[in-house]
Amino acid sequence: MNSNIPEFLEVMLEEQYGKEITKKIIQGYQSRRYTTLRVNTLKTTIDNVEKTLQEEKIDYEKVSWSNEAFIIKNVNEKELKKLDIYNNGEIYLQSLSSMLPPIILQPMPKLDILDMSAAPGSKTTQIAAITQNKANITACEINKIRAERLKYNLEKQGANAYVMIQDATKIDDFFSFDQILLDTPCSGSGTMNLQFNNKKDLCTKKLVENSAVLQTNLIKKAIKLLKPGKEMVYSTCSILSCENEDIISNILKEGKADIVPIKIKGIEQVPLLPSKIEGTLCVCPNEYYEGFFVAKIRKR
Q: How confident is the prediction along the chain (300 residues), in pLDDT tens digits per residue?
């Protein structure tokens, strides 16, 4: 057993992926992850951010699936936070994996869009940027303190969204939406970073079990709120099938929704783990990416 990760987690990973892939996942947990950012096109252009980074002698790399995503090679988060482009809200520090769900959702202007578990706002502000503030975005958050953080980030990024402080499982069925992003609370089994040893204590068996119950309740509510024929994205920062494929499989069995295979240009650059459901993505943690699961589904 690898003493750096919880024993139950290593057992679950080996049962799901086998020894070889589990070894690769643990290597990903042990990697020092690069800082990544997203250009906020509501406030600036990609060219302006590139110019600033070059002037500051900050090395960066682009990714194949998003023009707005930058991998920073030679400075850390702390250094980036000193820059005007950070303080003005022209860039948002966000993991690459976290940028995938809004891109996969393909949010459209003029539509009613729900971000079901929105704080601190990384994906809400990204949806606002993709739609250039022309969509009707509702950002739901149960926790008052986290909702304040969400409002702060929306304002800083110049993103328009209505913040609903509410338990998402209890949103009134009177509401209906054209698109829904459900980036659900989870065990964080994909985001473990053994560079910071204290993080490993945060992922417990009880948390995995509780997360799966909440995820089931949230996705059932999302399906109710989604208009017929419309699409939603379900995502977690977990790589355990009990929080991902099993949740989706149960919804598919109810006959209310179908999988929409994920197709994005340049996605072949993303390191993937095998998924039990064809057309979904499970991202393998490494020095660039956190472990993450994304599925797109259409309501019948």
A: 556 788 999 999 999 999 999 999 999 999 999 999 999 999 999 999 999 999 999 999 999 999 999 999 999 999 999 999 999 999 999 999 999 999 999 999 999 999 999 999 999 999 999 999 999 999 999 999 999 999 999 999 999 999 999 999 999 999 999 999 999 999 999 998 876 655 556 789 999 999 999 999 999 999 999 999 999 999 999 999 999 999 999 999 999 999 999 999 999 999 999 999 999 999 999 999 999 999 999 999
Spatial distance between the Cα atoms of 147 and 133, rounded to a whole number of angstroms: 20
- The residues spanned by each domain of the chain are 9-31+96-299, 34-93
> Rounded distance, CA 36 to CA 139, Å?
24
Q: CATH assignment of 9-31+96-299, given 3.40.50.300, 3.40.50.150, 3.10.20.600, 2.60.40.420?
A: 3.40.50.150
Q: Are strands 292-299 and 226-236 parallel, antiparallel or unpaired?
A: antiparallel
Choose, from 186, 237, 282, 284, the residue flagged as catalytic: 237
Contacts of 122 (CB under 8 A, 6+ apart): 38, 92, 94, 98, 153
Q: Return the H-helix or E-strand segment holding 222.
A: helix 205-225
In CATH, the architecture of 34-93 is 2-Layer Sandwich (3.30)
State if pTM tops 0.85. yes
**Is there a catalytic annotation at residue 237?**
yes
